[in-house]
Design goal:
This protein is of the alpha/beta class and 609 residues long. It has 18 helices and 27 strands. The strands form five sheets. The protein has an eight-stranded antiparallel β-sheet with strand order 3-2-4-1-10-9-11-15, with helices on one face. Bound molecules: 2-deoxy-2-amino glucitol-6-phosphate (AGP).
Length: 609
């Protein structure tokens, strides 16, 4: 989704803003722009359709120079991707605004402004806000008050940054429904949608809360006001992951780097959460023990890859903890009449903690009488964690590739910790065995990553295909779904996943020599049944690629290739089997030459509905 960067500094800000935009590219966008106020009090703007590199070229030809500026990457919602619709938007040539989100009541507001004679230059909802703030500013010459007055009139979700040529040493920012952080420098301050955008200038951040408005002013002033316009203090937090988190290092793509980080980030996710041979339930919060004792049912709600993690957890929670569990995508959950049995725990899963549907589901759930809510999330201070009763942070670190990889496997590890913490038979041999297996998981994943070369070779069989089928049973069915999602997201090959037992109920009709079929086949209680399903594929001339445990006896033939995956406790197998499927989609995408880290039409964090 859109990205915002703003800077109020003691030096020219063009370079800071441009670097910030480059670091926000991962969020997904279709155009970019920047506005800077020069020393003479004049606003200058450059915008470009397409990549930040196109904006950079324009800036090389006609640089902007000034100590205050705002910049933006746009992901189109209202109005097509075009230079005219790209931000910043101006009002009367004196005010500039950048905005992330959707103004739901922009149409009546636009009609009202048009009646008053305002001419619009774009099709965006944002331009309406620009004119409203400019008009409010004309009356009082107070930018903060003008923004607050305008926000009271608009419905919807936003993060925004505004500057005005007649308030030349101020930037005002606001957030409601979309993230915005203040980067705290020495005598210079910044705003951004994500701390990663500002790591080149600071590692200290103030995370704004829902409804907050902030005024940055000359000499380092930061004033935050809450939704009721009361001055408030928000804590200063130091970003702990270092600037390396925003760079690819020696890897060709962020996605590959993030796949290879999985052993380390899983070790980090386990750190401090295991004691001897059991899981520390206090990892979920000081009140977790009391709340967990009362849990009789669980509802898990999430989107995309995070939803797949929830689907795996359902098998674990019902098998290991005996707790009835439902899993649902947030965009469905939030709009239906949900019946909540007594003593049900509501669990959300999200990498970003800002996904609009998941947040809306949490807010809806808060009205339904759940026992409590737990967020499993990767971004500290995100809306989801702040609005949940309990939270467990995955320690994946910043995930830049749009295709989620390490966020997924750290979610799975966190969900297994939750499962063990919820078991009634705490401290038994099964818990001890799983805790031991979890401790050994990073080493097993290192071995799974050694499959990289054979998988790169295998990927050639997919590069020219238009469709692919993924099969799994039990906990491997959601892993098949995740494998198919990864392949379609980054290689644009149409991929479907089915529980293998469903094959003969329809999808078998699709199987022929042009349809590669990927099966995930660990040595579990369902293996023999899966083998029968594979025979059904072979009998129809289908080309099979089977990921199987080292010990599984499956002879390779002309149309059956077997890749051996390191063996682990069957509960941990979904985590390990995820890795080769990630590598497969990565290598297919590289062969096809697609934009691996920023696939077309997709955004990293889906902050609008
Ligand atoms: C997965 O590769 C995608 N990036 C997408 O499905 C993602 O998992 C989904 O949008 C949910 O995001 P969240 O985990 O940040 O809530």
């Amino acid at each position: 989704m859109c990205g915002i960067v703003a800077a109020l500094a003691a030096r020219n800000v063009q370079g800071i803003l441009l670097e910030g935009l480059k670091r926000l590219e991962y969020r997904g966008y279709d155009s970019a722009g920047m506005a800077v106020l020069d020393a003479g009090g004049h606003l200058h703007r450059q915008r470009a359709l397409g990549k930040v590199a196109a904006l950079e070229e324009k800036l090389e030809r006609a640089p902007l120079n000034g100590r205050i500026g705002i910049a933006h990457t746009r992901w189109a919602t209202h109005g097509k991707p075009s230079e005219a619709n790209a931000h910043p938007h101006l009002a009367a040539g004196r005010l500039a605004i950048v905005h992330n989100g959707i103004i739901e009541n922009f149409e009546p507001l636009k009609r009202e402004l048009e009646v008053e004679g305002v001419m619009f230059e774009s099709e965006t909802d944002t331009e309406v806000v620009a004119h409203l703030v400019a008009r409010a500013f004309e009356r009082r010459h107070d930018l903060l008050a003008a923004v607050q007055q305008t926000l009271a009139r608009i419905d919807g979700a936003y993060a925004l940054a505004v500057m005005h040529a007649d308030a030349p040493r101020e930037i005002v920012g606001a957030r409601k429904g979309s993230p915005l952080v203040v980067g705290v420098g020495i005598d210079e301050h910044f705003l951004a949608s994500d701390p990663l955008a500002l790591l080149q200038v600071t590692d200290r951040f103030v995370y704004l809360r829902e409804g907050d408005v902030v005024r940055l002013s000359d000499g380092g002033g930061i004033e935050v006001f809450d939704a009721e316009q009361r001055p408030v203090t928000r804590p200063l937090q130091v970003f702990e992951h270092g600037d390396g988190a925003a760079s690819r290092g020696d890897y060709r793509h962020f996605m590959l780097k993030e796949i290879h980080e999985q052993p380390a980030v899983i070790a980090a996710t386990l750190e401090g959460r295991l004691s001897g041979s059991h899981v520390l339930e206090s990892s979920f919060g000081v009140d977790a023990g009391a709340l967990f004792a009362d849990v009789r049912q669980i509802h898990i709600v999430a989107c995309g890859t995070s939803y797949h993690a929830g689907m795996v957890a359902r098998y674990w929670l019902e098998k290991l903890a005996g707790i009835p569990t439902q899993v649902e995508v947030a965009s469905e959950y939030r709009y239906r009449d949900v019946v909540v049995p007594q003593d049900t725990l509501f669990v959300t899963l999200s990498q970003s903690g800002e996904t609009a549907d998941t947040l809306a589901a949490l807010r809806y759930a808060a009205t339904l009488g759940y026992l409590g809510s737990l967020a499993i999330c990767n971004v500290p201070g995100s809306s989801l964690t702040r609005e949940s009763d309990l939270s467990l942070m995955t320690q994946a670190g910043p995930e830049i590739g749009v295709a989620s990889t390490k966020a997924f496997t750290t979610q799975l590890v966190s969900l297994l910790l939750l499962t063990l913490a919820l078991r009634r038979e705490r401290g038994d041999a099964r818990e001890a065995a799983l805790v031991q297996a979890l401790r050994g998981l990073p080493a097993v994943l290192e071995r799974a990553l050694e499959m990289d070369s054979p998988i790169a070779e295998l990927s050639e069989a997919f590069a020219e295909k238009h469709h692919a089928l993924f099969l799994g049973r039990g906990t491997q069915f959601p892993i098949a779904l995740e494998g198919a999602l990864k392949l379609k997201e980054i290689s644009y090959i149409h991929a479907e996943a089915y529980p293998a037992g469903e094959l003969k109920h329809g999808p078998l009709a699709l199987v022929d020599a042009d349809m590669p079929v990927v099966a995930v086949a660990p040595n579990d209680e369902l293996l023999e049944k899966l083998k029968s399903n594979l025979q059904e594929v072979r009998a129809r001339g289908g080309e099979l690629f089977v990921f199987a445990d080292e010990g599984v006896a499956l002879a390779a033939t002309d149309n059956l290739r077997v890749l051996h995956v390191p063996r682990v406790d069957e509960c941990l197998a979904p985590i390990v089997y995820t890795v080769p499927l990630q590598l497969l989609s990565y290598h297919v995408a590289v062969l096809k030459g697609t934009d691996v880290d920023q696939p077309r039409n997709l955004a990293k964090s889906v902050t609008v509905e």
